[in-house]
Specification:
Length: about 350
């Protein structure tokens, strides 16, 4: 019981979470109704059934359906604000949130600048009301490689509006990292960080590609890196952070069960891991639940969970001075939580 309270109250940072995939079912129903978008269900329970994925293609179908419900600036403002409220509930102090701008400019006809302004209105209101901070990772949807240079230009133009990095999402198979080499080089020249998805549905070759061709500073997922000992050694030696999302991997069929998930093995091999929720309502999880599963299913201790939280803070793209300040604050909070919730046996 003490460790569960510790997990709920511990300060957290999340680096791999999609804004569109974080919309609560109740909010999605409101958005669909006011924008006249038909959904395959009329209540939250029905949407939960719709979310029961059969494979990655089904997941993409669900994701597209959700994205079509976003039509106006007020919609984007609302989902950003509600994201901040959810952060506060889970004691997430900071997040880097992935968003796919090209999809929404195409779907809505709204100018990119108007969508960004609405997102940031919601973000600023959440900061004021809940004391949380989050910034944006604008991603290229690899299924539409023709959009990549447009997305880079947009992301670079919004560096002073909370955008910190360029991502690469969508279907890995059939869309290798090599196709996006020049756009990621362009992002680096513009001052954007690089955080492509790799090594989830596709194997270690996808991670190698992200490192060699995209100059990846973190790997979105990277969970299948353990299939290649040479890659494990490289990741360990260079301490390239992996953004692991265990429940997402189970829901999409990458692994059949939590006991089969390699998070413990990767941790014990010395890889730089962070823990994340990916698309929380769509996978029936949140960041608190992800940490709890590590404790329950893989025996992670309070000390290890603290290290994972601090890993995420250090791997973030916050300014170094701010990371140092927050690191001290996190350490003080963890010490207080130990005193209140844990006995000596539970921390060892």
């Amino acid at each position: 019981m003490g460790l569960s309270k510790f997990i709920r109250e511990m300060p957290k940072v999340e680096l791999h979470v999609h804004l569109e995939g974080s919309i609560r079912p109740e909010t999605l129903l409101i958005l669909a109704e006011r924008n006249g978008v038909p959904l395959p269900a009329s209540d939250p329970k029905g949407l939960e059934e719709f979310y029961h994925f059969t494979d990655f293609d089904h997941f993409i179908h669900v994701y597209v359906t959700i994205s079509r419900c976003l039509r106006t600036a007020d919609d984007f403002r609302l989902i950003a604000y509600e994201f901040g409220a959810e952060m506060a509930r889970q004691r997430i102090r900071y997040a880097e949130v992935t968003f796919s701008p090209y999809t929404h400019v195409t779907n809505t006809g709204l100018p990119f600048a108007e969508i960004v302004a609405a997102l940031n209105d919601g973000r600023c209101c959440a900061r004021a009301d809940f004391g949380v901070e989050f910034q944006w990772v604008f991603d290229i949807v690899r299924n539409d490689p023709s959009s990549q240079h447009t997305v880079v230009r947009w992301a670079a133009s919004a560096l002073d509006q909370g955008v910190v990095a360029l991502g690469l999402g969508g279907t890995e198979r059939g869309y290798p990292p090599e196709w996006f080499t020049e756009s990621f080089a362009e992002a680096r020249r513009a001052g954007l960080h690089r955080v492509p998805h790799a090594g989830e549905v596709a194997g270690p070759e996808s991670v190698w590609g992200a490192i060699r061709y995209l100059d990846a500073e973190r790997i979105g997922h990277g969970v299948r890196s353990g299939e290649d000992p040479e890659l494990v050694a490289y990741l360990r030696d260079h301490q390239i952070p992996l953004e692991l999302c265990p429940t997402s991997n189970l829901c999409l069929g990458v692994y059949p069960s939590l006991s089969d998930h390699p998070v413990r093995r990767l941790w014990d091999q010395g890889l730089y891991l962070t823990i994340n929720s990916d698309d929380p309502p769509m996978f029936g999880t949140d960041l608190v639940e992800e940490y709890q599963k590590l404790a329950d299913g893989h025996g992670f201790t309070a000390d290890e969970l603290e290290r994972l939280s601090l890993n995420a803070l250090q791997a973030s793209f916050l300014p170094e001075e701010q990371k140092r300040d927050w690191h001290r604050e996190f350490l003080a909070e963890f010490a207080s939580l130990r005193t209140r919730h844990l006995n000596q046996g539970e921390t060892e």
